[in-house]
Amino acid sequence: MANEEDDPIIQEFDVFLARSLLEKLYLFQYPIRPASMTYDDVTHLSAKIKPKQQKVELEMAIDTLNPNYCRSKGEQIALNVDGTCADETSTYSSKLMDKQTFCSSQAASNVSRYAAAVYKKGELHLTPLHGILQLRPSFTYLDKADAKHREREAANEGGDSSQDEAEDDVKQITVRFSRPETEQARQRRVQSYEFLQKRQAEEHWIHLHYYGLKDSRSEHERQYLFSQAHGLAENTELIKSPSEYLMMLMPPSVEEENDKPVAPSNVLSMAQLRTLPLADQIKILMKNVKVMPFANLMSLLGSGTDSTAVLRCIQQVAMLVQGNWVVKSDVLYPKDTSSPHSGVPAEVLCRGRDFVMWKFTQDRWVVRKEVAAVTKLCPEDVKDFLEHMSVARINKGWEFMLPYDEDFVKKHPDIVQRQHMLWMGIQAKLEKVYNLLKEHLTPKKQETQSVNLLLVSGEQRVNMAKAKVKQNYGQLEKEFQKQKAEGKSNNTSAKMDITSVCIKEEPVSDDEVMDTSAYKGMNNGIVNGLHAEEDSIDSLNGHLPGGCIDRVAQELKAFVSSTFKKQFVLTLSELKRLFNLHLASLPPGHTLFSGISDKMLQDMVLDTGCKQILVPFPPQTAASPDELKVYALWEAGDTYDQHRQVLLEIFSKNYRVRRNVIHNQLSQECGEDLNKQEVDRVLKDCCVSYGGMWYLKGTVQS
Fold first, then answer.
1. Which segments carry the region annotation Disordered (predicted)?
2. What are the DSSP calls for 371-402, one per residue?
3. Looking at the predicted structure, is the pLDDT value of residue 647 above 80?
4. What is the pLDDT of residue 75?
5. Which of 84, 128, 336, 390 could cross-link with 398 by S-S, CB 3.0 to 4.6 Å?
6. Angular region, 384: left φ>0, alpha ψ -120 to 50, beta rest
7. Beta strand pairing call for 26-29 and 291-292
8. Which helix (H) or strand (E) holds 331?
């Protein structure tokens, strides 16, 4: 109170809000200008503006007759910028720096609390500012001077021959095909600095007319700073209570909110989530989680949420699979989108994912190859589908990630029945699109068993396997002795017979069964990897009954022989790839689908007359172990066997070799002068050229 008594009110006056220049009035803040700068010579001044960016460029005239102006410096700058030739494109037509350009930048992002005030005859008239711009000198003429300097240097570097110029015109062009842009990539591109610069450059300049301070047009525009009507009806904004008036004078600051770190676009806090409608909450949760039991969903939505409303909303964005809710495919892949891996449209992706979801309604296990073969989608897309709702198990397939929710099924039989009808409709649609076979539509017997049967500990599985081996050991031993006595099998089949009755003692990684089983022959009637029928023990780990081993060996030997007669040199990785392609071309139930291990395949390669070439790879190589194993056909039965053997000996000592070294070594070892065609034939059989050097096939490390 004492402070108020010491500061008495001297005068009261009315305040008016002028609206005539609303969203049109800008405040320009000029730098301290030198004595040689003048604003009187308006004939040499121009202005232009980009309204959306609130960007202004002003061109001011410089008084070149002022005693403070350095004429020699001005002439030097004009000469550097425009050169000796003056034309219409010259920046300084007078060959003298007689003008200066100013560019603007925003001084404040929020100008809502700033206004221009005019006091007249006891009245204060306020006009809100639309922007505050700071003008700074622009030095783009220096960039132009640098460009001129580089052009002059390029012109002075004459003397190049016409042949050099012709060679310069020939340039290598790399053609790349871009993948379809995903939504995340598009958002990153839109927010990038280059994109914003491009958008700003696309806005056209609007040229303005400048009017001096004493011009009649300026005087006319200045009248708009005064309120055109003094009536209270035009100034209702100022008729407020004291608290509202103070709030208008000092609005709450929003800068603190803007300074808070912004969360990623795909992250939403639970507090923000619960401010949304219930349907949007459920959609966002399911889109992020993919698979969720109903009880977990209710716990995330918070206490007091009506379960009936949740059930009504969840059916709009998810489907029931094994008592759990899985987000619908069209929610993850909206219309007019495409796969980030293959560019396949969303409609095809939705059909493929619906097939995976439908398979999990039939069984807890799904084989990835079966899905890929039916849907004809790329492996990356199929893997995405499976990772949404299942977990990979080694040598078994993909298991649904959540246990069967019996509680929900018992409490809501009407929902279960309705979802079953929906799945029947989806199944009918899939049958037409994919021409599904009967074996795809028949539910597995394992579904009828109780859920507890699926949960078998590792110790129980080992004990069950040992018991079955003991039961069948006698019978297997008799078959083995009978085959040995008959002597029908060769060395390869004998090795396979021994492994068919002996427990494997090699490391798992060395004798692991290759992933070459056919999807149509996969038996899903197993419990955690154990076959339900006792007679199926013979086919565990890729071993066959004695009667089938000969056929497997013959088929495998025929494949290896024909492959190496065509390729001559193969890495183990490439051989396995070709073997998988060969399996894909075979009919279902073929003997090779029994399971071929890496060791079995390598032994067969050595038995067919091939040798392993110990190529000295560089120490820093990033090749996989299968790519480091190189095999070559030693004798093909033609006239080039000796030449190929010499060539392979060379690469057993060198990782890469020049052509002239190979040619000289072949001529020396073979005792004859080989022509170019013969050397090309040998190199074509075994090698590839890269960067002027020759490598064995499959050993090039880019």
1. 146-169
2. HHHHH---HHHHHHHHHHHEEEETTTEEEESS
3. yes
4. 86
5. 390
6. alpha
7. unpaired
8. helix 329-332
Give CA separation, 594 vs 374, 488, 507, 511, 561, in Å: 21, 21, 20, 15, 20
Vertex 207 angle, CA 205 and 213, to 5°? 135
pLDDT at 399: 92
Query: What CA–CA distance (Å, rounded) separates 378 from 384?
Result: 10
For residues 345-359, b (16+ Cβ closer than 10 Å) or e, as one string? Answer: ebebbbbbbbbbbbb
Using CB atoms within 10 Å of the CB of residue 118, give its burial: 0 to 12 exposed, 13 to 18 middle, 19+ buried: middle
Neighbours of 630 (CB within 10 A): 24
Contact 446, 528 (CB under 8 A): no
DSSP symbol at 698 = T
Summarize pLDDT for 300-347 with one digit per residue, the tens: 887 788 889 999 999 999 999 999 999 999 999 988 888 888 888 888
Q: Which helix (H) or strand (E) holds 8?
A: none
DSSP string, 126-166: EEE-SEEEEEEE--HHHHHHHHHHHHHHHHH-----HHHHH
Backbone angles phi, psi at 59, to 5 degrees: -115, 110
Distance separating alpha carbons of residues 388 and 327, to the nearest angstrom:
9
Two tokens at 184?
């995340």
**Gap between the Cα atoms of 396 and 379, Å rounded:** 18
| CA distances (Å), origin 478, targets 291, 474, 501 | 52, 6, 10
Query: CB-side exposure of 385: number of CA atoms within 13 Å?
Result: 31
Structure tokens that stand for 509 in this block: 């990684």
Over residues 495-512, mean pLDDT: 40
Q: 671-679: which pairs have CB atoms within 8 A and are 24 or more residues apart?
A: 674/643, 678/640, 678/643
Q: Of 379, 40, 395, 474, which is closest to residue 214 (Cα–Cα)?
A: 40
Q: Rg (Cα) of the chain, in Å, rounded?
A: 41
**Confidence at residue 460, expressed as pLDDT on a 0 to 100 scale:** 64
For 581-625, write each residue's pLDDT tens digit. Answer: 888 777 777 777 777 888 888 989 998 889 999 988 888 888 888
DSSP string, 198-212: HHHHHSPPEEE----
DSSP, res 543? -
Q: Give the tens place of pLDDT for each residue, 206-248.
A: 888 877 778 888 888 888 888 876 554 455 555 677 787 777 7
Least confident range from 23-27, 106-110, 441-445: namely 441-445
For residue 265, give both structure tokens. Answer: 């676009």
Distance CA 99, CA 92 (A): 8
Taking residues 162-183, report their average pLDDT. Answer: 63
DSSP string, 166-186: HHHH--------PPPPPHHHH
Partner residues linked to 651 by β-bridges: none
What value does the mean pLDDT take over residues 89-111?
A: 81
Place of tokens 């609390």: 113
Report residue 50: phi and psi, to 5°: -110, 100
Q: Are 647 and 687 in contact (CB under 8 A)?
A: yes
Name the one residue in this structure whose structure tokens are 């000092």.
250
The distance in angstroms from the start CA to the end CA of the chain is: 84
The answer for residues whose C-beta is within 8 angstroms of residue 571's C-beta and 6 or more apart is 626, 627, 628, 629, 630, 631, 697, 698, 699
Sign of the Cα torsion 485, 489, 494, 500 reads negative
Q: What is the mean pLDDT of residues 459-476?
A: 65
Spatial distance between the Cα atoms of 401 and 365, rounded to a whole number of angstroms: 10
Residues in the chain: 702
